[in-house]
Amino acid sequence: MFVLDASVIVKWFSEEEYTAKALDIRGKFLAGECKLAVPDLVLYELANSLRYNPNFDEADVEQAVTSLFDMDIDIIAPISGLITEAIKLAFRHDITIYDALYIALARDLGYTFLTGDMKLHRKVKQLDFVKSLPGI
Question: Is the pTM for the entire model greater than 0.85?
Fold first, then answer.
């Protein structure tokens, strides 16, 4: 059971370092071997990241975002308490509210937070439910 951040999901669509590991997580989800959840923020982050990738055109970006809906990943709109927790985490660990939202969601659901962002991972790795993509 994972909360994935955009740095992992982007690798499903773009060949990058650790793409194979990201695709393995997606494969396990599609095979019913694990659950995945994301805050709705990931839709915007994914679209924006792919929009600035020269290998993607408008249709490609639309297709990538639509595929997340088609996969039936749990896409969760945050509520007040989750935002409050994200704010606390952001100040405590010197990270963005955006990044903290993923971590707060993982904590709330009792899931593992998985990131491909090594700078973020270094700042929050002391949290026992936080893992890096290379580390799984």
Answer: yes
